[in-house]
Specification:
Helix content of chain B: under 10%
Largest sheet of chain A: 7 strands, mixed
Number of strands of chain A: 11
Distance between the termini of chain A: 34 Å
Strand content of chain B: over 45%
Largest sheet of chain B: 6 strands, mixed
Structural class of chain A: mainly beta
Shape of chain B: globular
Number of helices of chain A: 0
Radius of gyration of chain B: 13 Å
Oligomer: heterodimer
Order of helices and strands of chain B: EEEEEEEEEEE
Number of helices of chain B: 0
Largest interface: A-B, 24 and 23 residues
Order of helices and strands of chain A: EEEEEEEEEEE
Structural class of chain B: mainly beta
Chain lengths: 111, 112
């Protein structure tokens, strides 16, 4: 009965590979987000989707592509992984932006 | 650019003591929120204070907001070892897209 879930929890891969992270929320929220948290714990929004439509697309490389098949899912696909992509990626959802519910995070390590 | 700056970056106290964390922000805001992040976990919403409020309480938490100084503080009273976590302020700028901007966080360690 987890509210916001992400898979996988850990992802270790080689430079140049393509990988995906999946996110699902069962809260019935309209808006979902992807955040990146760096090694200094600084958290920055990457994307926001509202009812399957992209509403925020911060300055991230176009190697990152979010996909929302329905409003309960927001997946993140990353092409041609680079060392600097190593971070913890968090999915979140909210009904309004005032209170966001976060997933447990996916720790991505690019070797 | 980073909206919020928090200080201290790290705080270590004994169980039972109070912990105060501060957050400063740069632009006008509609509200400010505080989140907690336990090690290896996602963020959890703690409390929200609106721009027309000066103080808010929730259990052992007390949040203040000074819009003239563009700052907020989070006070945790009678701290417990379980309060050990990182604490982040987050704000939505007035007129911005529906986007939360997080501060840099304070790592609180409560020693038993």
């Amino acid at each position: 009965d987890t509210a916001v879930s992400q898979t996988p929890k850990y992802l270790v891969t080689q430079m140049g590979n393509d990988k995906s992270i999946k996110c699902e929320q069962n809260l019935g929220h309209d808006t979902m987000y992807w955040y990146k948290q760096d090694s200094k714990k600084f958290l920055k929004i990457m994307f926001s989707y509202n009812n399957k439509e992209l509403i925020i697309n911060e300055t991230v490389p176009n190697r990152f592509s979010p996909k929302s098949p329905d409003k309960a899912h927001l997946n993140l696909h990353i092409n041609s992984l680079e060392l600097g992509d190593s971070a913890v990626y968090f999915c979140a959802s909210s009904q309004d932006v005032l209170r966001q519910f976060f997933g447990p995070g996916t720790r991505l390590t690019v070797l | 650019s980073q909206q919020g700056e928090e200080d201290p970056q790290a705080l270590s106290i004994q169980e039972g003591e109070n912990a105060t964390m501060n957050c400063s922000y740069k632009t006008s805001i509609n509200n400010l929120q505080w989140y907690r992040q336990n090690s290896g976990r996602g963020l959890v919403h703690l409390i929200l204070i609106r721009s027309n409020e000066r103080e808010k309480h929730s259990g052992r938490l007390r949040v203040t907001l000074d819009t003239s100084k563009k700052s907020s503080s989070l006070l945790i009273t009678a701290s417990r070892a379980a309060d050990t976590a990182s604490y982040f302020c987050a704000s939505i700028s007035s007129g911005s897209a529906r986007q939360l901007t997080f501060g840099s966080g304070t790592q609180l360690t409560v020693l038993p």
